[in-house]
Amino acid sequence: DVQLVESGGDLLQPGGSLRLSCVASGFTFSSYDMHWVRQAAGKGLEWVSVIGTTSGTWYAGSVKGRFTISRENAKNSLYLQMNSLRAGDTAVYYCARGRGNYFDSWGQGTLVTVSS
Amino acid sequence: EIVLAQSPATLSLSPGERATLSCRASQSVSSSLAWYQQKPGQAPRLLIYEAYNRATGIPARFSGSGSGTDFTLTISSLEPEDFAVYYCQLRDNWQWTFGQGTKVDVK
């Protein structure tokens, strides 16, 4: 079975940095695009970033220049380096497996809280 | 940027009733639309992809239709476990966008 497990969420102050991780199992990680999607409490889903199989990267405008997505195929791992964090970045962050136009598997999420 | 508008925001129905959820795109997206279900405290789950294809393990009571700018998710007869929030989603070049969601709750 496909499994995605996120970690790294924390409470931190505005301006801080954090690195999220997602470990994948049950499929050939290197063969899939991988995404980060976030959800603020009580709000809808917001796509954050994608990294392709050849490590091309794309970002939502709200995080471009502050967040960096990366992957380490040897460790079946996806990362999200988040810098210059703002209160508006407070959310549950999900990693999701991409299938071109859509996401077919999701992790359970990790909570990032940015507050002074 | 393509915007997705879902309606209604909330749908109050009883078990056994038919649910019809709408998703309208601001520009034509051919058939590249997906639907997800999310229950409280859980991750989203893929229901429908490419407008009308059911994902693995999704019951036949869920169906998707539409193309261009207007799409519909239909639940033919609501089961107790179907009360949840539903999101539509599309890809526009290298950006992925979600609708704001429709909550299906118990009448």
Outline of the structure:
The complex is a heterodimer of chains A (116) and B (107). Chain A has 116 residues and is mainly beta. Chain A is built from no helices and eleven strands.
Layout of helices and strands, plus pairs?
The complex is a heterodimer of chains A (116) and B (107).
Chain A: E1 3-7, E2 11-12, E3 18-25, E4 34-39, E5 45-51, E6 57-59, E7 67-72, E8 77-82, E9 91-99, E10 102-106, E11 110-114
Parallel strand pairs in A: 2-11
Antiparallel strand pairs in A: 1-3, 3-8, 4-5, 4-9, 5-6, 7-8, 9-10, 9-11
Chain B: E1 4-7, E2 10-13, E3 19-25, E4 33-38, E5 45-49, E6 53-54, E7 62-67, E8 70-75, E9 85-92, E10 95-98, E11 102-106
Parallel strand pairs in B: 2-11
Antiparallel strand pairs in B: 1-3, 3-8, 4-5, 4-9, 5-6, 7-8, 9-10, 9-11
Question: What can you tell me about this protein's structure?
Answer:
Chain A is mainly β. In chain A, 0% of the residues lie in helices and 53% in strands. Chain A has strands spanning 3-7, 11-12, 18-25, 34-39, 45-51, 57-59, 67-72, 77-82, 91-99, 102-106, 110-114. In chain A, strands 2, 4, 5, 6, 9, 10 and 11 form a seven-stranded mixed β-sheet that branches. A four-stranded antiparallel β-sheet of chain A has the order 1-3-8-7, with no helix packed on it. In chain A, strand 4 and strand 5 form a beta hairpin. The radius of gyration of chain A is 13 Å and the shape is globular. The N and C termini of chain A lie far apart (40 Å). The model of chain A has no long low-confidence stretch (mean pLDDT 98). With 107 residues, chain B is an all-beta fold. In chain B, the strands form two sheets. In chain B, strands 2, 4, 5, 6, 9, 10 and 11 form a seven-stranded mixed β-sheet that branches. In chain B, a hairpin with a 2-residue loop joins strand 9 and strand 10 (95-98). In chain B, 35% of the residues are buried. Classes of the chains: A mainly beta (116), B mainly beta (107). At the A-B interface, strand 5 and strand 10 of A face strand 4, strand 5, strand 9 and strand 10 of B.
